[in-house]
Design goal:
38% helix, five-stranded mixed sheet, 318 residues, Arc Repressor Mutant, subunit A, 12 helices, D-Maltodextrin-Binding Protein, domain 2, alpha/beta
Length: 318
């Protein structure tokens, strides 16, 4: 095959088709008409002598050849994009664009208000589209459909770039009328009813097995080391909901301290240190290697890191 007969636009089409697995959505992504994208797919099939995408019960499924081409095409386009990027730095004051950020409501409540305050001053034309962990898959991030993800992660693809934002301890949130407050010992903590709250990683969640201690997270893993188990009556993935439930006089919510402190001025709840040692959690930010060198993305990542450092009582990065 002579490289002179290859239209580089076809590689852009192929990348979009492999990202979306859908001709209509790929066309929308590239601001093309569906007939134009269909014509591009036809030319790609002729170029590679392969159907590339085949219609199945699961939608458009890539062939083995297409899966071989996917990382190669992406690397080629990333290299070209990097080569043609303007040398001038990203100008946040003039920028008009949307950033898509996946964040748990823990990160959304504790970190993003400071980020938004910085943006209003430094980049008033930027808009944040904040998505929940259930809205996003690892594949979405890998393909650059999401600019960055902020959460606690048990595991992550090795290709992702990531950075540690902060560590957080745990606190208990409960009603001042909860009788356990009279003697807040470990024994009484275990006798009480609890709200479990967590949303680690990303993707659509599944039901919780109360007996699967290894998957219940930090609090229950710490209790398991003491050969103890708490009585969980409610499982939720939403920190704001859990903090509201703490106002009931028979429930204890054990959650990250930064989230619990958001209710410090609420007279219907009180904060207490847990009656056991719980290892701190890590909040991380991760992003696709496709966006590693993108000037706008790099600027926002630094602003988020600096916001985390400010909240942590540290100096921003240089």
């Amino acid at each position: 095959m002579n490289i002179n007969r290859i239209d580089l636009n076809l590689l852009v089409y192929l990348d979009a088709l492999l990202r979306e697995r859908n001709v209509t959505q790929a066309a929308h992504h590239l601001n093309l008409s569906q007939p134009a994208m269909s014509n591009g797919l036809r030319r790609l099939r002729e170029l590679f002598d392969d159907p590339l995408l085949v219609r199945t019960s699961d939608g458009m499924t890539p062939t083995e050849r297409a899966l071989e081409l996917e990382p190669v095409v992406r690397e080629v386009l990333t290299t070209i994009d990097r080569a043609v990027q303007p040398r001038s730095a990203f100008e946040p004051k003039e920028a008009q664009r949307v950033f898509r950020i996946m964040a748990s409501d823990y990160a959304e409540s504790t970190l993003l208000p400071t980020v938004l305050g910085q943006l209003r001053t430094l980049a008033p034309g930027l808009t944040l589209d904040i998505m929940t962990p259930s809205d996003v898959s690892f594949m979405d991030v890998e393909r650059g459909k999401v600019d960055m993800v902020i959460n606690r992660f048990d595991s992550m693809p090795q290709s992702f770039h990531q950075i540690h934002l902060w560590d957080d301890t745990f606190s208990c949130l409960l009603s001042p009328e909860n009788p356990v407050l009279e003697n807040f010992t470990l024994d009484n903590y275990l006798k009480a009813n609890h709200v479990w709250v967590s949303k680690t990683g990303m993707g659509v969640g599944v039901g919780v097995d109360p007996d699967d201690v290894q998957r219940l997270g930090w609090v229950d893993a710490a209790l398991n080391k003491l050969d103890k188990k708490r009585q969980i009556r409610v499982f939720t993935r939403h920190y704001q909901a859990a903090m509201t439930m703490a106002e009931q006089n028979d429930l204890i919510v054990t959650l990250p301290t930064r989230a619990a402190q958001l209710k410090a001025n609420n007279p219907r709840v009180v904060l207490r240190e847990p009656p056991l040692d719980i290892p701190p959690l890590e909040l991380k930010m991760a992003w696709s290697p496709l966006l590693q060198h993108n000037p706008a993305n790099r600027w926002l990542r630094k602003l988020i890191v600096d916001s985390a450092r400010i909240l942590d009582g540290k100096e921003p990065t240089l």
